[in-house]
Structures are given as structure tokens and as C-alpha cells.
Amino acid sequence: MxxxxxxxxxxxAALIVAVALTVIGVLGFVPGVTSGVDQLSWTGQRPGAxxxxxxxxxxxxxxxxxxxxxxxxxxxxxYAAARAYLLVGGLIYLALWLYGLFVExxxxxxxxxxxxxxxxxxxxxxxxxxxxxxxxxxxxxPTKRRPRMRxxxxx
Length: 155
Description:
With about 160 residues, this protein is mainly alpha-helical. It has one domain. It contains 4 helices and 3 strands. Strand 2 and strand 3 form a beta hairpin. The chain starts with 8 loop residues before the first helix and ends in a 20-residue tail after the last helix. The model has no long low-confidence stretch (mean pLDDT about 85). Keywords: Membrane, Transmembrane, Transmembrane helix. It comes from Mycolicibacterium chubuense. This is DUF4383 domain-containing protein.
């Protein structure tokens, strides 16, 4: 396959998601972009800090975004790793969405300050990542050789 692209679309998608998540995580620590940074806690149910004045953040949630983002840079190196990153990362964000919806506020299990905006963001990010992993899977891995089809001899 001499004409195989160096990078597949799934790798590009993983890289774009990685950049976005890493930037979001870092911005959660930046005064001005995040209001109430002086009230940023490691965990907790009550949002003291709001990214873009909308999304509740904590140090733990920012670090989750950064870690998942950085994992995407490593995952984007190969076709298979990029697909796995998008799928597993998407499932992580869908789990965060479900956590925000179903973990009772006030319970000891509720350690992240999630609000409605966070829940919608996590649902969207998770769905897009899983969708990218599935739809871009239609491409063939350029590192795996496909057997050549032999032409039947014509009579």
C-alpha cells in the first residue's frame, strides 16, 4: 500500500479531541476564564468555581479532563490506539454524565461539583467520541495487509 496515508481520520479525530479536553482542563485553573478560581476545591458538591461562568469545576474534574486529553495524544499515534481512545474516553464521559444524573446530591458518593451544563457537556463529548470511534472504524487499518483477490481466469 504505497499510497496509504500516514495518518488515518480516526487518528486526527483523537488528536482534536485530545487538544480540546486538555485545553478545557487547563482553563479550569485559569483566573478570568474560570470565575471563583480562589474557591476551587479538590472535590466537593458545591461549585465554587465556574469555567466560562457556566460549568462547575473542581481540581479533580480539571485533572480528569487533562488526563483523558493527554491520553489522546498517545492514542493518536496508531490507528488501533486512536479508536480505543475514542471509545474508552467516550465511555468515561458517558459515565460522568450518568454519575451527574443519578448520584444523589448530598450523598457521600457525590464528590464532583456537576451542574446541568456539565451533564450536557459530558453527554455530548461522550456521544461524539463513541460516534467517531464507530463511524471512523469503516476505514481499514493501513498497518494490516488485506489479502489480494485473485481474478478468475476467463474462458
